[in-house]
Amino acid sequence: MARKKQKSRRGRSRLGKVIQFLFVVALLGAMTVGATVFFQVEQVEVSGNARYTQEEIVACTGIKPGDNLFRMNKFAIQDHVKEEMPYIEDILIRRRLPSTITVAVTEWDAVAQVLPNENWVAPEVEEGETAPVATEVSWLISVGGKLLEQASAEDARMKITGLTALDARDGIQISVPEEESGRLLSVVALMDELERREMLADVSVMRVGST
Predict the structure, then answer these.
(1) Residues 22-38: pLDDT tens digits?
(2) I need a surface site. Which of 68, 125, 188, 194 has the fewest CB within 10 A?
(3) Sheet arrangement for strand 88-96
């Protein structure tokens, strides 16, 4: 008789665990369905923008009404926007329940222009490799050394000589030959200090030699 009672208790215990497991699964399923049905994007708010319009930034994020708030990859979107919109320094995407996405951006300023280095000679490369290409035009850059866009001939921003911008395109950090890496670090540090002291507008030319 005692053994039958023990088996009965074990059976009820196992049944209870199964019921608890099924309850948890059902609860998770209900939460997933609820998040899909109820937490959809109805509004996207943009702040901190000046150069780009709200419509341009929203279009670049790819976020559309009806998208699920919890299924979007915020970090991938942020990286994409910074690559496609060179003047955006930083972007932060947040969810505001029940149906709003907020996009806060910080924009770079073009503080200087890197002039082409006509004296640079590309190194020889092995067969099948691609030789780096030095820019033949001036490029506007940010304090942090990000290439923003090609400078016009009339641009009056500080002119930097002594650096060789390689494979230049807007939205990437300036790349220079290995022998110029020390110069680049010095230029970025100096521009940062000039900006901190509000002296960037007072400098018209920066000639970079041996550091």
Answers:
(1) 666 655 655 555 555 56
(2) 125
(3) 43-47, 100-107, 88-96
